[in-house]
Specification:
Blueprint (H helix, E strand, L loop, with lengths): L10 H4 L1 E6 L2 E7 L14 H16 L4 E10 L8 E12 L2 E9 L5 E11 L7
């Protein structure tokens, strides 16, 4: 399926689409040194969140989709060098509002993040 939204997203910072299907998406991200917050190599949670958010946007896959609210849990730490995969699925389609479940897994298939994203499809681009 063709990617219809967020086409200029940085693969290096937010991830690369692996699969886009109606109501579902998967995005992969290799974590890097520049994402670390300390000498232990702990990755800042914003990168994990961004990955999940990107997958949620692609699950909706409408050009004018935006995030309105998210309820999330960080379940395990992420380290520099880990490959992450975010999987997102539209749970409820309420017209212009979509509730999307997103989960992020590490290379050991351990869930490191989960969340519900409240996405909205606007009539025109949010900056117009």
């Amino acid at each position: 399926m063709e990617q219809r939204t967020h086409r200029l997203t940085s693969e290096r910072l937010v991830g690369r689409p692996l699969k886009i299907e109606p109501g579902k998406a998967e995005v992969g991200l290799l974590t890097t040194e520049e994402m670390a917050v300390d000498e232990y190599g702990l990755v800042h949670g914003g990168f994990t969140f961004g990955l999940a958010d990107y997958a949620a946007m692609l699950a909706v896959n409408e050009p004018t989709v935006v995030l309105g609210k998210a309820e999330v849990k960080f379940l395990k730490p992420v380290r520099v060098g880990e490959r992450l995969i975010a999987k997102a699925e539209v749970l409820e389609d309420l017209g212009r509002k979509k509730l999307v479940k997103a989960e992020v897994f590490n290379e050991k298939n351990e869930r490191v993040f989960e969340g519900t994203f409240h996405c909205y499809v606007l009539e025109k681009h949010v900056l117009e």
